[in-house]
Amino acid sequence: MSLVVLHYKELALKGRNRPWFVKLLMQNLRAVLRDLDVVSVKSVMGRLELEVGDSVPWEEVRDRLSRIFGVANFSHACRAPIEFDALAGRILDTLSDRHPASFRVSVRRADKRLPYTSPQIEREVGGLLKQARGWRVDLSQPSLTIHIEMLTDQSFFFFDKEPGAGGLPTGTGGRVACLLSGGIDSPVAAYRMMRRGCSVLFIHFHSYPILSRASQDKVREIARLLTRHQLRSRLLLVPFGDLQQQVVLLCPPELRVVLYRRLMIRIAERLARRWRANTLVTGEVIGQVASQTLENLTTIAAAASMEILRPLVGMDKDEIADQAARIGTLSISNLPDQDCCTLFTPRHPATRARMDQVLAAEQALPVEAMVEAAVSAVTTEEFVFPVLSS
Ligand code: ATP
Ligand code: MG
């Protein structure tokens, strides 16, 4: 049997909602390990304790847990009594083949009623270890830190802390619909919403068969990758090429991009409602490209009656790319594709599309019929993690 102790940080602040946050976090932990031999997941005095069978490789558990939102850090741990001699003995058994150049003991008391303070326990247990093995104590730069957590009638100890994904547990933040292109920005926008506890529905517009299927393949790959965090995803693929052709035929070229975007927003809103999401999310950033001036963002947003969130709005391109690299989406986004927005893009798109011009241009379009047609042609794909082999 193998023990993992997980800590949450932000969750601890959630006052009376805390049991609900913890419950969802525990559900997500069970779900991400559901094909492995999980013996128990328990909440004990402000931390979580997870037990898996001996046969489960720690690397696999570590990899999966590292992507679950709501976890501040976690450790492969051992259980021990709280009596100092027995505790030190258990630590020495576990460390039998390690010879650190120096060490320190770092104690947290989960149960503040214990009759010793943390520094007292550190000195007592540290003294026993030093006596037994002669290791040098170094409080500032030890080569080994022995973490001990004292509970009421048992303790945990561990030597390494793995960073968790942070944020809030999936499911605590409601459902949003993210307009996901194959580009660099929108996958990061989706990730940031997920990290705040939202379940994210993905909506992708493509121009197949006018353009290749490449953007759909990229988006699928991105959805698959992000599903390792939220564990269940739905991707909606919307054929958009016909609509773009109508815009090209009937509207002034410099307004095309803004008109495409307004159509996307209308369609996305319709789809979001159908799948019970009340908010749209995009990867837009002020000033990044001609279509993303403040004026254009406003004109685009005016097509929706739903809130539009833009989690990247104030970020620089390199900050976004760094984050995309960390999440793992950057290399997928960098694959060549033919994004539908590059289709029939004019050489000089309007950087300040005025609302009256846009509305006049839309008079020429059967907007409602276009939205209906796109919505009824949507195809849906489901993703789950882990994928169970049957
Ligand atoms: P990204 O890297 O996310 O594609 P970008 O810098 O290429 O962003 P634009 O192409 O102008 O910027 O897109 C702005 C936003 O509009 C995107 O972040 C995304 O949310 C949405 N969007 C653009 N194209 C599509 C598409 N084909 N399908 C779904 N959403 C899209
Ligand atoms: Mg793009």
Kindly describe this structure:
- With 390 residues, the chain is α/β, with parallel strands linked by helices.
- Helices cover 38% and strands 21% of the residues.
- The chain folds into two domains: 2-163, 2-Layer Sandwich (VC0802-like); 175-384, Rossmann fold (3-Layer(aba) Sandwich), CATH 3.40.50.620.
- It has helices spanning 18-32, 58-65, 84-94, 118-133, 185-195, 214-230, 241-250, 256-274, 294-301, 317-327, 330-333, 355-363, 367-376, and strands at residues 2-7, 38-44, 47-52, 73-80, 102-109, 136-137, 144-150, 155-158, 162-163, 175-179, 199-206, 232-239, 279-281, 307-309, 379-384.
- Helix 4 (118-133) links the parallel strand 5 and strand 6.
- Helix 5 runs parallel beside helix 6 (214-230), helix 8 (256-274) crosses helix 9 and helix 8 crosses helix 13.
- The model has no long low-confidence stretch (mean pLDDT 94).
- Adenosine-5'-triphosphate (ATP) binds next to helix 5 and strand 11.
